Sequence to fold (484 residues):
Amino acid sequence: MKTIFSAFFICLLAGCAVNRAVYDPFAYAPKDTCWYYTPDCEADALSCWEECETCVEPPPEKHPLSLAEAIDIALVNNPQTQISWGRAREAAAQYGKSQSVFFPKISADFYFTRDRTAYLVNQVEQQQNITMAGLIINTQSQWGPQTHLMWTLLDFGQRRYTSEAARYALYYADFTHNDAIQLLVQNVTLAYYHYLYEVKLQEAKEADLVNAQETLAAAELGLSQGVNNISDVLQARSGVLLAEIVLSEQSAIVNSAYATVLDAMGLPANRTVHFEKLPIVDLDKMELPALDSFIQIAMESRPDLLATRAQMESAEMSLKAAKRLWAPTLDYSLEFGRTYFSGGFHDNNDFTSTFSVSMPLFTGFNIRNSVRAAKAKVEAASGQLREKELAVIRDLKKSHFNVEAALETLHAANRYLKASKEEYEVALAQYKAGVNTILNVISAQASLFDARAKQADATQQWFNSLATLTYNAGILSCQTGDAL
Fold:
């Protein structure tokens, strides 16, 4: 008995093990509003950081990355697609769980029972008319294996529609993952072209500085020859200093854009990666299909729209399952086993086989409210689907027009740059010949600077508008990659 009580006391202590949070939970929080939290040993382990290894290593530093290579790295390393992929796999597991209700549930156990019972027995001696009392102690043990089977044979579709709701929820998660991939491709594309734009703008600022120095050299030459006065030199020198400041500011912007594109690729911003130059656009080969063709493709292939439709189907299946909560359910149960008793006896296999039919008669309006909630969910999902369809058409209308506008702007920017170069060259040549003023040269120079910036911006807007249009149309998927 001492051994039994000792073991019981040890188990009791093990089950009641507590830490400081039981009697002093505020010890795990900052002491006051102005106190900094000091972590304990376990919380301090969270501060240990090791740089994560990328699954796809970038090419060597001297190799300039194309957009396709940048997207390939991003698809593997960016955490957003990993999150959506994990949620899709979770939804797949939930759909698998919803299928398990169609199978019987079988369990097995083994039990051992030992009891000690005392009986008080009275014995009467008839000859002597004496009653004698005696105590009989009976110790009995019984044990044996038992198998349990439970199977729902018929429920008029409740399980099936519940499983169908889980299946469409899985489709929602799958299409959401597809949308995350397309969104990642769009984000990488925009970040990639934004960085190339900033680099090209920096090159334009460097060319601006060269032109400002040419103007200053012409003013200094005119001053040395007695043709110009010192004011021309001072104005030209101010232009050079301003160009140097703008170039310095642009370098900081390029560095920020570089960090942004590496972050979109899922790489640390301290990596050294080189990218290709901003492509030259061949405007003569640009043909934009009609808006209706993009709308048709988007309605059939855009992942977020398909996900919204799947959400709608899932809500409808949940409504059908809720309506069948009123239906009767036919279940079958079987318990089978053998019980052994002290002395080597057993019951030679006992079993209980039961068919049962159950049907809810009154649940406190729970089923009725469940149906109402399911109907409201269907109505909300229908509204969301309609809202998404209108948003798709609206986004395509805007992005399609933006592509057309960007193309016209790029045409105009190229003509503006060509004209500004000619204007500056003529103004500088006339100034060197002494038949023009420094003000006209600086004005032409400013126009050239502005034309370079506008041409770089127009090129970026062209690529950005194309990337946005392809995302809004959903043509990044494999099914519609060759559609246009």
